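About this split. The held-out portion is used to measure sequence recovery: a designer receives only the structure tokens and must propose an amino acid at every position. Recovery is the fraction of positions where the proposal matches the reference. Here is one held-out target exactly as it appears in the evaluation file.
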């Protein structure tokens, strides 16, 4: 049985950037629903129940057809949100490690590819704002920026795991920002945990 991981920080720890109300609803209700529906889909497939979530969703063609859509949507939802909680940390003024700019090899590689950190965030933001309807924006280990619809994630298509992901479903921001996705994305940069992203870059970039 899959379970919702702990948030790792308090619901209100992201301060004014993402409210406690959103975090509680998003983690306890939305993520839990993906997990519950994934577990329900796998009820009659015990051989799939113990798989690591990455292994489960990496090869959707191997999933029996009757539950393939459910695994794609709810397994994707589980993977994506599990990553999303970790790419965020309270901002530094709130006692965490979020915000600021990346350092080390990731910073150098981003500057090499995009010209500067600012140019990178501008391009990532533009792509996140351009997602039509519900979806995600991702940074891949080769530092390309890609977007997906619904709960899809690049690793479903045989690509490497993303190192950074941004949820642009309305449920991720509507309570705080209503229809202003641009304000949400601007605020979100203040809580990105670059130490975590840099560790994933170090882990995955050699294989991409
Ligand atoms: Mn979400």
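Reference sequence for scoring:
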């Amino acid at each position: 049985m899959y379970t919702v991981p702990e948030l790792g920080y308090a619901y209100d720890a992201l301060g004014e950037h993402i409210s406690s109300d959103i975090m509680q609803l998003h983690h306890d209700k939305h993520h839990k629903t993906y997990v519950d529906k994934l577990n329900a889909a796998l009820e009659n497939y015990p051989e799939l129940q113990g798989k690591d979530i990455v292994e489960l969703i990496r090869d959707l063609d191997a999933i029996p057809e009757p539950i393939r859509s459910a695994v794609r949507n709810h397994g994707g939802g589980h993977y994506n949100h599990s990553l999303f909680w970790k790419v965020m940390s309270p901002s530094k003024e709130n006692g965490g490690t979020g915000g600021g700019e990346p350092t080390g090899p990731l910073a150098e590689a981003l500057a090499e590819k995009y010209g500067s950190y600012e140019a990178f965030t501008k391009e990532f933001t533009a792509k996140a704002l351009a997602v039509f309807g519900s979806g995600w924006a991702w940074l891949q280990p080769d530092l390309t920026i890609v977007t997906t619809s619904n709960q899809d994630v690049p690793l479903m298509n045989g690509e490497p795991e993303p190192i950074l992901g941004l949820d642009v479903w309305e449920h991720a921001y509507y309570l705080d920002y209503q229809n202003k996705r641009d304000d949400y994305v601007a605020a979100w940069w203040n809580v990105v945990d670059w130490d975590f992203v840099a560790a994933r870059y170090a882990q995955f970039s050699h294989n991409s």
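Annotator remark: Residues 20-41 form the longest helix (22 residues).
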